[in-house]
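Ticket #4471: structure output looks truncated?

Reporter: J.K.
Steps to reproduce: submitted the chain below (137 residues) through the standard prediction queue, then opened the result file.
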Amino acid sequence: MQSIALLLGSFLCGTALAYLLVEATGGHMTAAELRSCLSVAIVASVVVPALPPHYRVELNDDFLVLRGDGRREIAWRDIIGVEIRKTVGIRTVAVHVSGGRRIPLRAPMSFLDRGFDDKAKVLTEWWTARRGSPEGL
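Returned output as attached by the reporter:
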């Protein structure tokens, strides 16, 4: 479903760009110019949704792994809380670590992700099952 939404969004943006170009040229485009604009819109509609997700979260027994520009590992025992945040109608997950910092996760995100609730639940369950228990209990 996300791919269809991205494909449709890309196509609509490309179509809007083509209309803007038509207006910018005074309403007259040659067949070659129109063909070029439509080609760009079609290529963008196919290529943009096919790009791999840039940011992701991986779960393993010892760490919450954040992938994106690099790799960051956060030990489960260092996470003291998992929070679902809502900003401008978009829900995201943030983790609170023992040093007092809040680390917002770029994935999962509720925008165009119908599986957000399930992913947030899995993340919370992994943290609950793997966090360190307090000393002396």
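Triage note (M.O.): checked the attachment and the full token line is present. The first strand starts at residue 56 and ends at 59.
Status: closed, working as intended.
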